[in-house]
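thread: overnight batch results

M.L. [08:02]
morning all. the overnight job finished for the chain we discussed friday. pasting input first so we're all looking at the same thing
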Amino acid sequence: MKRALITGIFGQDGSYLYELLEQKGYQVYGIVKKDLSINSQSIREKLAKSGKLPIVYELDLQDYKTIKEAIDHIRPNEIYHLSASHVSSDGKRNGEKIDDNLLFKLNVSATANLLAACYDISPSTRILTAGSCLMFESSDSDRQDETTPFNSDSLYGIGKITENHLVEYYRKKGLYACTAILYNHESYRRSEDFVTRKIVKNMCMLKKDKNHKFSLGNIDVEKDWGYAKDYVNGMYMMLQGSEPQDYILSSGEMHSIKEFLETCAEILQIDDWINNIEINSNITNRKNNTRLYGNPEKIEKELGWKREKNFREWIAEMIIEEMGR
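M.L. [08:03]
and the structure it wrote out:
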């Protein structure tokens, strides 16, 4: 039986990856923080109710000694490092503003510890780290692929670039190590900090109460949005390859927040929804100097990755789940 270790196993991506690997016959282990976010608690409870209980280690990824001991004990065939791999569009994490300098230190240190531990005691372990499209947020390119130079003006993006340099360093030393450069990917397991979940929740409330109103920022902003389960499948495929390579995982499409709203309204059969939305200039989306638009052709051609749900289909799934809450 193959063994996999997932950091952030009760996050959106970690929980879907756990379910995927369990279906494939893996023994799955997880690393979690002592204090789970409300969203992670909800995901854990949902998994438990369906009888899905990964073996969990409550560890601090800043503590190299305990990480090394855990890896030595588990001897995983694969590690998926997804913990603390994202912030929401308004710069929040788990509902709270987080200091950029702290996030940089936490992300880089955790990745360095995991890679070093694998190299020291389990060099045959294959390891994937979660990168971000924000590694390109100050790029000169209107569409990014794996040859586009990284350039970021935020500490979060710089941190992810630094993590990728660590991956490259250990890859040259013989580890099967790679970075999944993830563009926006959504599902009903998203935290409400994210605009997709916020919109779905409020549009479902509007369906039930025609007088319901909610606020958004600029709805003309475009995003490269995809379906989280598809991206998790891509991560799995990356660790099954003949050699370690970094890949972009993106939808290859751009849609505005307004299009997202229109699709929700069409699915829910809501008319005149625009009058229930207050455009608030004080609500700011993350401002990037670059149009973050990914090109997934490399992973499609080399690994055969396909997206199973289109824009409308995964929005419909989010709505069905929300309406059933």
